[in-house]
Write a structure and sequence with these properties.
single chain; alpha+beta; 3-stranded antiparallel beta sheet; two-stranded antiparallel ribbon; 15% helix
């Protein structure tokens, strides 16, 4: 299971409908729109914040996209931007090599309850 903040900013929860010992619920209670740096903010037609873009999407630079010379876990550490999002949602992917704390497995067939923006 991969829970990513790379394309989403609203709170969510993800849990397996049939409980299993090795399957823990994953969630993100934080709303990243409230901590989004001004340069990453996406506004709606009314001027209100509707999303927080990734630094990769906004700047398209190797250090934010983990590409080119920054294309390995050793050369692409978390950035100040990804750290902001990670602080809000510790179990979610916040940048390309955020595997250690953001990848989970659960044996058995898929039967999940996913709730966005509760």
């Amino acid at each position: 299971m991969l829970v990513s903040l790379m394309a989403s900013t609203c709170p969510f929860s993800w849990l397996r409908k049939v409980a299993r010992a090795e399957c823990t619920a994953t969630s993100c209670a934080g709303n990243n729109q409230f901590v989004c740096p001004a340069e990453l903010v996406m506004k709606g037609s009314d001027g209100g914040v509707i999303a927080c873009k990734s630094a990769c999407l906004v700047f398209n630079q190797p250090q934010y996209c983990c590409t080119g010379d920054h294309g390995t876990p050793e050369t692409c550490p978390p950035t100040d931007y990804s750290k902001i999002f990670k602080s809000q949602c510790p179990q979610a992917y916040s940048y390309a090599y955020d595997d250690k704390s953001s990848t989970f497995t659960c044996n058995g067939g898929p039967n999940y309850l996913v709730t966005f923006c509760p």
